[in-house]
Amino acid sequence: MTDVCLILEGTYPFVSGGVSTWIHQLISAMPDLRFSILYVSPFPNPRREFKYKIPANVIDIQDLYLHDYRREGARSWPCRRRRAVARLGELHEAVFAGREEAFAQMLPFFRDPRQALTFWDIFRSQEAWEQLVSFYERYGEDVSFLDFFWTWRSMYLPLHKTLQCPIPSARLYHTVSTGYAGIVASMAKLTQDRPMLLTEHGVYTYERLLEISQATWIYTPQRDRFRIQRELSYFKRLWLGFFNLVGRLCYQNADRIITLYEGNRTREILSGAPADRISIIPNGIDLDLYRDIPLKTPDAGPRRVAYIGRIVSIKDVKTFIHAARLVADALPDAEFLVLGPDDEEPEYARECRELARTMGLTRSLKFLGKVEMRDYYPQVDLVVLTSFSEAQPYVILEANAVGLPVVATDVGACREMLEGRLPEDRRIGPSGLLTAVANPEETAAAILRLLKDQDLWSAMSEAGRHRTLHFYNQDDLISQYLNLYEQMMR
């Protein structure tokens, strides 16, 4: 048994990023606690590699592959299967109707060896087929049964795998999202009778809304493809309803919920989280790592602007590239750096490179990949974030700790991080400028304002250092988590 089992979906230790960095800090700062990790991902990947050096207090890493299911041939006795499938259908409808307590009553049909239904029972039996047809007749609206069938399978196959996942033994289960990781954490709470902690950096259901509304992998009937619609298609609504349900289950089962900023707290409450269980603990930063990094002086070479982060669509790197073109028109000697890994969405990264070439930025805009940021902070004048969605971006903490002003879209905690959350924080003054989402003109104007106004740049540089010292000191914030762990493990 470990002290804390971290249940992680698509983050640490195999994917780098702000959430993964925070998890690594959390584990490393608590060497006296023993951690296990249950890592949720779509498929086995023999080429994957650790993005972080695993601390010695991580005792075990276990995988849950959502789409690596075996089509077992075992079957239950027909009489028992008929009763079980019918009862499971009733509980399924109860859960979707908002009776979250029915989730606990469903678990024996997946986890109890005396009652558990097999893959064949749920996905290939006559009883399951009749149940699916019944659902379609009641809820299928006017979509074809074939489309309904394949959407149902793609939704419930990974859910079936999740509900049968072996759960590591631990004193506390800590999930860093709702979603499939949240389902596992909820099961652990109910079956192991141990406390459950949820930390949300971004609100999972909101992020899925953004993803699903733009998704091309979710089938849209042919007749709807050429029609202007004010609402999501049937199958997009079906997927969104699924993730909203999963979010509510996680919120209701969590003993404590931690989020990063007030906007997240409001979203969680609107999504079904009990307000009295939610606390705010922002991310922190190890200030000792940044104190000695020198700042670039205005006369030290050309003005240099950096985008720092993964090259993925949700970060909207294309808006940064469009803004770079506008800045270059006003300051022809300006240089632009894109610093971050490009292996997560290679097609999007290729599109970004092609866009930069098309806009005539081949010489002034460089894609340098993942780099050691301590080597690059002294070379840049400011940092830019153009994300569609963020939680509490670590890059803002880093840049402000160094003393670099930031231009960021007004999403997530960016406003609190650059302008302050508490009254005493706001009195420090802004440490950057906020812009609208997907607005290259506004982004370029903010960049030019900081590059041309040295007094403003200096004031924001000092404000950033002061704010991170007093409100985002990693030691203080990690101590809050350690105290929380100790309280919950008693």
Can you describe what's shown?
Strands 3-2-1-4-5-6-7 form a seven-stranded parallel sheet. A six-stranded parallel sheet has the order 10-9-8-11-12-13, with helices on both faces. Helix 8 links the parallel strand 4 and strand 5. Helix 8 (about 180-190) packs parallel to helix 10 (about 235-255), helix 9 (about 205-215) packs antiparallel against helix 10 and helix 15 (about 395-400) crosses helix 19. It folds into three domains: about 1-70 and about 155-280, Rossmann fold; about 80-155, no CATH class; about 290-470, Rossmann fold (3-Layer(aba) Sandwich), CATH 3.40.50. Helices cover about 45% and strands about 15% of the residues. It is α/β, with parallel strands linked by helices. The two termini are about 15 Å apart. The chain contains 20 helices and 13 strands.
Corresponding CATH superfamily of the largest domain: Glycogen Phosphorylase B
Helix segment tally: 20
Largest sheet: 7 strands, parallel
Category from helices, strands and their pairing: alpha/beta
The CA-CA distance between the termini, in Å, is 15 Å
Number of domains: 3
- Give the averaged pLDDT, no decimals: 92
Shape: globular
> Mind telling me the CATH class of the largest domain?
Alpha Beta
Q: Strand order of the main beta sheet, please?
A: 3-2-1-4-5-6-7
Q: How many beta-strand segments?
A: 13
**What is the percentage of strand-forming residues?**
5-15%
- Please mark out the parts with pLDDT under 50 across 5 or more consecutive residues, or reply none: 225-230
* Helicity, as a percent range: 40-55%
CATH topology of the largest domain: Rossmann fold
